[in-house]
């Protein structure tokens, strides 16, 4: 209730009006009401989408600015009066036309037209969505006439490569520019900073900024705006403030977006003083109205959970006679709901009701707040009361309730909500349509899902491409592939574009399930689908950004085009992974007449890595083909395959070949070697390579440091002192460790009881922009995982009171887990109840820990009760949850039940991973069911998992214990055969 007391303080201050919170109506605020809203209007989808995006943007700290993007893009634009559109169109047509009898390069050579740097630039921009084709054209033009490769064309190429995260190629291109005296201009630096900023590589961004200044380029307004965006999106509030101050000191005036971005970033960091300073600058320097500035401050605090600070903003607005509008109270109510302060939010709503300035938006926020806390009865009660009063709510609220029912396996209630929407005359938006389709499919009600789609189409409401894609993916998850293909055909008939990576996802899913016949049908649709590439360019201007991708699922991104056909890839993989001798495989490959490119070789190696020996033979064979030359990328992949198969002699041989052929030995090449040696505990060799790398003058990148530190922290070959040294060196080099690395590093320190160094790491993280609760939570969770609950509790008490709730949310699951591991059930249950009191409810992690505990205590009924309660509370079981059920059943002798859970995972998802297979094999062997474990061992390679030495050992020893010596020898032979197939045999 602290925030409520603070709210009262605001309005009971002596210098204000003496008033209790519940008498807010007597304030002299000018509360403006919004015009009445019609829930039936056509832009309900827009309102819903806007609300969802707002939550996502601020929760994740990802704020994109179209104007800044456009400024960066404009820096790649090259305009000429000469009309070259026909040349550009023809070249683009050849590039996108795929492989024919003649190669793309040959067709380009045969074009009877004149290329120049302007044409090259425009062709590259037309290939924005297909970076591999752009790079292929760029490499061809370099060979044809290097003079066409100017700074402008390089800028365009860097932009395209950066958008597709191909930073290794970006680095090579930058080196080429230096080598060929193709000087970087300020546009080059801006694009590089922008692209690395988007990938959150802040260390690289800062190095580029310094490099730009050392090269004699003074940062301009666009550069500073790009820097601010990168730093704020990466939550580096302190560094962002330094750049802001530098920017202002140079008489550069930030735009509104930059100001707002800073406010949101600072609000997350809790730097109230800096926020006040920014707000003053917005009003005094940039002449932004006080109303707009304080609205932005209020919004930032509410979304970041700073309710106390938000109330201070309201107090300031009162003292400055700034009118309070309905949207301000909506922000406050929403912020309180997000912070779990429903009671406080309700009291504010009660005040607004008395002043008669409340509208449906507030009620929708409250319903959402109840649903967040899983208080479905309260949400429904409020919903029903509003309906009884004749109030009409928006589609988004109906959709949230409907989704909640579907998640809780209450299909009828969810579908009734859908029918209620139709009866009320509401026009469903794409989110609602998608939700009801997913609900139907999850209950295997395919005909109802189709009815929903057809009904919408009859009404003239065309679901978005994202809706159809979700439809297809959900059908694939329940193995209804015929229906999935029907949806693809339906999309094709409606002329809806289907991205290549959607096809790739479907094909990959079918491939795992062995549905090879269905794959060919999907490929048929892919071949005949509409042209998915937009050509919106005219002869005078170029837009690098695609026209509209706002409706695409984050997973549904534009996949880079391949410089090979799927048919060639499928044929090559089929031959390489077959059981034929290499001599027979070579004959078959010759007959296929494959069009071999480095990209094809990389993919074959990747897909056939479990058949490492044959894959490496394929690598050697293609290397001898006329007209083909291996690249650094193909060598890197071959080294990775050799290392995975523990064929280190051949891996080193490949490395020496690269050097002899004068190929670029990049940090990635050496990182692969460090990782492969380190993962099996050969850390002495990994350290030696790391030293050799620096002696060569090759600077380690963030991946190098990460691979080395993870190796040094592993159980095999652990070297803690060297790990600490490498971690410090990584920070000094300007690389920010990611969450995965930090967790592994801290757990290693806690396992060897070096808590002091772990705490030093926490302090270091705080200086790198990590919030105090997050930094502390990582260390506390590491202490919990290593069983040091006392030290974990000490660290919790070191965190300030204002950060306690946030911290508790982070460490909740880990703390419950370690208490239960220690047998302190009562302490764990008391902690769960105390967390509920502050609005933090049990997570899937908490429920899974309870399930593990009850199974260990032989209380099977209680374990299953916890599992059912978890599903009732809307927590979706994860792979870890199902694996815990399998382990629990096995330890209690219920082997059939364990198999039932395993089959359910395979049929309905989530699919078992490598750890699930390993755990189940181990449990079966311990329970005298080694023959069943042997079946799982045989199944693993067919679904893409390489059995480990431990897997083979468990089954081998288990069969021998059970007296099945012949089968044990069979397993041993399989192990030898599997190991030999992964090595290069000369």
From TrEMBL:
Keywords: Repeat. Residues 363-501 form the PROP1-like PPR domain. PANTHER family: OS03G0856100 PROTEIN (PTHR47447), PENTACOTRIPEPTIDE-REPEAT REGION OF PRORP DOMAIN-CONTAINING PROTEIN (PTHR47447:SF28). This is PROP1-like PPR domain-containing protein. PROSITE patterns: PPR (PS51375). Residues 32-55 are annotated as: Disordered. Residues 42-55 have a biased composition (Basic and acidic residues). Pfam families: PPR, PPR_2, PPR_3, PPR_long. The keyword Repeat applies. InterPro entries: PPR_rpt, PROP1-like_PPR_dom, TPR-like_helical_dom_sf. Belongs to the PPR family. P subfamily. PPR repeats lie at residues 150-184, 185-219, 220-254, 290-324, 359-393, 394-428, 429-463, 666-700, 701-737, 808-842, 843-877, 878-912, 913-947. The keyword Nucleotidyltransferase does not apply. Signal peptide: none annotated. It comes from Deinandra increscens subsp. villosa.
